[in-house]
Design brief:
Length: 146
């Protein structure tokens, strides 16, 4: 099964309305995992309170893990958001989706969603490391056309 990643439709609006600040690295971006019973709605989900069925299990903390070293860079017409890979060590969990959100505003109803990743099937760890290795091109890019 192929892995796909999609931006939530409200993400650019949240950035333009200054609900999140990806460029300075001051905002805390989190990556949470969800089970296969979460149904992402790219057009309707805008804040963390829309996300359901977060995984539970040994080695996983509710709310997910912080994406460290997050940064925005620009080269030509391509803006790239990237960060360190995310992992849960010594974990026993099963997930189908990863959801990135900005936890800085402070409540589930105000924490904007960025992207979700569909692993294409359930992925599990059993007393081991569950790791998400981001693409070498970045977690996501935005290209402005000429």
């Amino acid at each position: 099964m192929s892995v796909t990643a999609k931006a939530y439709s409200h993400m650019p609006l949240a950035a333009l309305e200054k609900l999140m600040d990806l460029g300075t690295g001051n905002d805390v971006i989190k990556c949470m995992l969800c089970t296969s019973t979460y149904t992402p709605s790219q057009d309707n989900h805008d804040f963390k309170d829309d996300v359901t069925n977060e995984v539970t299990g040994e080695g996983y903390t509710t709310g997910g893990a912080t994406v460290t070293s997050s940064a925005v860079t620009i080269s030509g017409r391509v803006t790239k958001f990237d960060g360190a890979d995310v992992e849960w060590t010594t974990s026993t969990i099963t997930a189908r989706y990863a959801v990135l959100y900005d936890s800085t505003p402070g409540s589930d109803a105000t924490n904007p969603l960025l992207i979700y990743v569909d692993f294409g099937e359930n992925k599990s760890s059993e007393a081991g490391t569950f790791k998400i290795a981001w693409n070498a091109s970045g977690i996501f890019t935005v290209t402005v056309s000429a």
